[in-house]
User: Which sequence fits this backbone?
């Protein structure tokens, strides 16, 4: 029997890397892709070269098609989990962020997910019980001020999960996603923040939230990797890490005006 196979975008760092390590440790064949070739080479060494790696910019559909073709040869045409995980975050009010940064966020976090699914749907179809899994965010609980494009992409991928979970039932594949809260990954050091078009340092939220114990507490990337594993063995659609993020999602859905007004009041105090 061939090894079960996972294909991960944004695999060289943070959540993607933790997931690659965990699935490899469990005996799966790992396809790890990223734009960061240096970090990808380090991952390959850490996996004792027992994996497929390729440079992949998720916004490039032609490149995605080719990388999936190469991966399929290496995995013997199976794809048990497609993990759409690559993402960037850019902070700042919509009118103060350079528009090309807004477009880059939409392209990587949303169009990149469509590119990946479209490129690999034939493999999901051909693999029994396959799962299309996408990293959303707690920023999808309610449109997040100061991260409008980012949270739009994360709300959108949850809608995509729901639609595909029904469409894929035609051929026995599944779709699910995870909304992580504050995860301790390099994303926070890399993220850009703009005020009146000028770049500023982003707050190190994982550091600031280390002593919190609520839904906003800092969680390790491994917890999200565990969630990918659990999701594969479940039929649940939307996952939350930590679990309390789900409660916040529910409250915001039940009272959108109250949530909006609380956020306006909070912003006016700053
Ligand atoms: N860290 C958090 O607190 C947090 C919370 C919620 C959601 N997320 C989401 O988790 C996912 C993973 O983020 P992370 O925290 O592990 O961040 P990370 O920065 O550690 O990893 C993201 C990876 O994506 C890669 N990437 C960026 N642009 C790419 C592109 N065009 N094509 C391919 N790869 C690209 C980066 O090189 C990087 O290796 C993202 O979708 C992010 O939005 C993170």
Assistant:
């Amino acid at each position: 029997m061939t090894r079960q196979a996972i294909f991960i975008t944004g695999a060289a760092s943070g959540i993607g890397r933790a997931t690659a390590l965990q699935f490899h440790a469990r005996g799966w064949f790992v396809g790890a892709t990223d734009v960061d070739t240096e970090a990808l080479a380090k991952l390959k060494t850490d996996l004792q070269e027992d994996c497929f790696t390729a440079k992949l910019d998720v916004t490039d559909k032609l490149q995605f098609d080719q990388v999936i073709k190469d991966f399929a040869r290496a995995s013997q045409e199976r794809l048990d989990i497609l993990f759409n995980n690559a993402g960037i975050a850019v902070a700042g009010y919509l009118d103060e962020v350079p528009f090309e940064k807004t477009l880059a966020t939409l392209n990587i976090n949303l169009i990149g997910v469509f590119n990946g699914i479209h490129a690999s749907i034939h493999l999901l179809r051909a693999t029994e019980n396959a799962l299309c899994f996408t990293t959303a965010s707690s920023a999808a609980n309610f449109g997040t001020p100061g991260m409008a494009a980012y949270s739009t992409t994360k709300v959108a991928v949850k809608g995509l999960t729901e639609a595909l979970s029904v469409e894929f039932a035609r051929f026995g594949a599944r779709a699910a996603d995870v909304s992580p809260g504050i995860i301790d990954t390099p994303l926070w050091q890399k993220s850009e923040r703009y005020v009146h078009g000028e770049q500023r340092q982003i707050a190190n939220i994982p550091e600031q939230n280390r002593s919190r114990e609520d839904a906003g507490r800092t969680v390790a990337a491994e917890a999200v990797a565990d969630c990918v594993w659990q999701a594969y063995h479940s039929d649940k659609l939307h996952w939350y890490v930590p679990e309390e993020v789900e409660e916040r999602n529910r409250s915001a859905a039940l009272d959108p005006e109250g949530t909006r007004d609380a956020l306006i009041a909070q912003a006016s105090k700053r």
